[in-house]
Specification:
mainly alpha; 72% helix
């Protein structure tokens, strides 16, 4: 028995009873007194059909009625966890890149050897690209970089520019070796054990370039003969 039939069972029972009464009334119709009021009884099958039609119509209305859904707002993205060590690394890496650019520009102006000038050009180009990457990364990680380091850079330029000739070339090569030894060590540490994904990814990508710079600077230092100290 269907659910609809179960719901209509009491009603159908009443109809059956009414139908029986109607049959009895028809049988005794000839004996009814004139003026007696008779009750009109609807056939059971007609009532059943009406009920089925109403049930089908109700189901159709329910199917066509759009279901209201509540759209929850999308959760805000969680900012990547950045430790104080990560912030310090970003600041130091940016400052180192700026120093390499400044000293490279100074070497382009004062270097004597062509290979030293070529290395200086590579320093300017590669560290300019690195500084742009670091600035973008700092923005994504909400890390504030030093606003102004012009005074420090000016002092580093002046300190290097006091040398001349091949002595300038050698001093520049010495400083590039020392700077890149420290840079390779710091970046390798983050590449191997950093916990901030974006920062670690940058370190992994940048480490081979810094290692190449170190090897190049070491070769320059071997190729440049030692000369008596001479200042400008």
């Amino acid at each position: 028995m269907t659910t609809t039939t179960k719901k209509l069972a009491p009603f159908l029972l009443a109809l059956a009873t009414a139908a029986a009464c109607q049959h009895s009334s028809d049988t005794d119709a000839s004996t009814e007194a004139p003026g007696t009021r008779r009750v009109l009884v609807v056939p059971a099958q007609d009532v059943l059909q009406v009920a089925a039609d109403e049930d089908a119509a109700r189901r159709e209305r329910e199917a066509q009625t759009p279901v209201e859904t509540t759209t929850e707002p999308a959760p805000e993205p969680i900012a990547p966890l950045v430790t104080e060590a990560d912030r310090a690394f970003l600041r130091d890496a940016m400052l180192d890149a700026q120093i390499e650019i400044a000293l490279g520009e100074t070497a382009l102006q004062y270097a004597e050897r062509d290979d030293v000038k070529a290395f200086a050009r590579m320093m300017v180009d590669d560290h300019t690209a690195a500084s742009m990457q670091l600035a973008q990364l700092a923005g994504e990680l909400n890390v504030t970089l030093p606003a102004d380091s012009n005074d420090r850079l000016a002092r580093r330029r002046a300190d290097l520019a006091q040398w001349h000739g091949r002595r300038f070339d050698r001093v520049y090569a010495e400083r590039m070796v020392a700077a890149h030894v420290e840079a390779v060590e710091a970046v390798r540490l983050v590449a191997n054990s950093g916990t901030q994904p974006e920062l670690r990814g940058w370190a992994e990508k940048t480490l081979p370039t810094l290692e190449e710079h170190l090897q190049h600077a070491q070769k320059l230092l071997r190729d440049i003969p030692t000369e008596p100290v001479a200042r400008r």
